[in-house]
Amino acid sequence: MKKINFIMVLVFGLCTRLFAQQTPQYTQYMYNMSVVNPAYMINEPGIIQLGSLYRTQWVGIEGAPKTANVFAHIPLGEKIQLSANYINDRIGSKTMVNQNVFNLDFAYKIQLTEKTNLSLGLKAGVNQLGIDYSNAELQPGQMVQNMNQSNLNIGSGLFLFGEKSYVGLSSPNLIPNKVISNDKNLFEDKIHAYLIGGYVFNFSNSIKFKPSFVTKYVQNAPITFDVAGNFLFFDRFEIGASYRYQDAVNALAGFYISPSLRIGYAYDYTLSDLEYFTKGSHEIFLIYRLDLLKFSKNYSSPRFY
User: Cα(first)–Cα(last) distance of the chain, in Å?
Assistant: First the structure.
């Protein structure tokens, strides 16, 4: 028990100091790429895509991160898409760190060739961070105050895509912000940069395979990356796996309950030193496609990214 308590103090002491330097990690980011790239477009005029994702990380460790994401992709014609993202990220038990992020994205598409498009994206939003010390175990005579701080968030991105492939470069947070609590500089919100890409292979009319990757760079931190491979069968059932460098191997599965409703699940098996204290991480998502203008007949086989 002492060893576990020591690990907890170490892990969450570090996480608290680095909390704003690393945005929440998603295994199934590919189902809502606007969370890392504001230029992402579903490119289906008339189709509104609504979704939610929930992640519970490092199950079995008290106070481990829990993240919820609600999002919407709303095309405004052939060339423009608006996306909205709300993210709640919570970490800690005795000392609770709670982050709420709300972003709006504007993406504009430029047609380069008959089958290739370039999308330019801008992100604007607010990042609200709170630290609650109400249940913290303090030293005798130690006085602390709860903290709430809100900061502006601005980001941008490029997204080059065709029928079977995509590549994107983005920075969803271009404004570094310091977080100060009880007259101490706890951490600084660092600039993030993402490079994403993928390609869809049509093995047959009923089987598609999509390898993909995401690389993340945070100022003054090591580069991290995920690589994944997903199979789609009969445009209905999806299964795949991914690897996060020096962190986890992941299994993914998804299913179209109907042409409009899609669900998915991912399990992360931890490879870091935390593997001795956790049962892994779980992630679920739900996506609903709303065809207000009855345009879906033009997109009988939705794009596989």
Answer: 45
SS3 31: helix
Cβ neighbour number for residue 45 with a 10 Å cutoff: 16
**Buried-state track 80-91, b at ≥16 Cβ within 10 A, e below 16:** ebebbbebbbbb
Cβ neighbours of residue 111 closer than 8 Å, sequence gap 6 or more: 117
The tokens for 161 are 């895509």
Percent of the chain at pLDDT > 90 equals: 54
For 75-122, how does the pLDDT look when each residue is reduced to its tens digit (9 = 90+)?
998 899 999 999 999 988 888 889 999 999 999 999 999 999 999 999
Nearest to 208 by CA among 227, 236, 228: 236
CA atoms within 13 A on the CB side of 232: 20
* pLDDT band at residue 45 using 50, 70 and 90 as cut-offs: confident
Q: Give this prediction's pTM.
A: 0.86
- What burial class does residue 287 get, using C-beta atoms within 10 Å of its C-beta: 0-12 exposed, 13-18 middle, 19+ buried? buried
Token pair listed for 270: 């931890």
Q: Which two tokens stand for residue 289?
A: 């496609």
